[in-house]
Every structure is written in C-alpha cells, then in structure tokens.
Amino acid sequence: MKFLSKKFLSRIVLGVLALSSMFVLEVSATTLVEFETSAGNFTVELYPEKAPKTVENFLHYVNDKFYDNTIFHRVISRFMVQGGGFERDLTEKSTREPIVNESNNGLLNQTGTIAMARTSDPNSATAQFFINLTDNQFLNYTSPEPDRIGYCVFGKVVHGMDVVHKIGIVPTSTMKGFSDVPIKPIMIKQVRVKPVADK
Fold it and tell me: How many Å separate Cα 146 from the centre of its chain?
C-alpha cells in the first residue's frame, strides 16, 4: 500500500485552504442595503452577478445619499410599492442618465423582489424602484420586444418584508396629478450599504 508523502499532503491541505478562502470571500461579498423608513426598516440583498449595471447604478444613488428623505410615492395593494424619485412634496428629483434594461437575467418579479421602475421605453430606468408585494408574472421578461421585455429585478428583501407589506396597505389618494399616493407620506429616511460586520 502506497502512502502519500508529507510534501504532497501539504500541497493538498494548502489547496483546500485556498479554495475555502475563495468561498468565504465570495460569500462575504454579498451586498446588503438597509432601508430606514417611517414605517420601519427592511434589508435588501443585491444580485450584481445577475444585474451588474443595475446594481452599480442603484449603489451610486445609495452612496450619493440620493434616496434620503424621499418617499414611497406610489402604493398599490397586492401589487407593489414604488419609491426613489420624489421628495415629500412630490417634487421629482434630478437623476443620472438612464441605464440599459437587464431584465433578461433569469430573475423573476416574485414577492419581495426589488426591480427598476421605468416608462414605456425599456431602457429608461434611472433611480426609481419598486418592491413586488406578490408574484407579478406579467412584469417578467418574455422577449426582447419593447412591450414584452419586462422589468429588471436586481435584488430581494431578506429581512423586514412585514414592513413592506405594511406600507402596501396604507390609504392612498390622487395628489398633484399623481395616483396611488399615500395620504400620510411614507418617508425613506435613508438607504445605506450595511457594513460587512453587520451582515
């Protein structure tokens, strides 16, 4: 029976350790973002490997503190809550240039996922986002045609979905020409990337 030399064994151990450290680095690279709102806090996990340009764009706004003191300006029960573009008085904020739609990434508009809001132009998303309150299959990518390209999912609520559901049932009205606006403003006090130690 042949025995492995100490030198060969040490190489195997070093290789296993190297692979283990790579795995740890990959896991710890997960980006979590915490929303502090007037209705409570919730945490979103981002998926840069699935929607790299979208996540990069979103984090630019987060790091610039763009979302601080904005509101959830559109809330539709059993559908979604939308925010990221308006101040308390419904003044729209200036944004960066629109980004390409990455909806064909395999992620679906399921309950708790966060996706980019846009106009009828598929590549018009800037800062506004929405969180799905239910499985909204009709928002998913089905083809590259403009009316079937869908809405890009780039993350998911991993903690505090009860807060999001609470926002989803607030009374709404039409204000300044905007429909489905919460009568009592739901403030996004701040949005921050959570430090690694807090994940």
Answer: 22
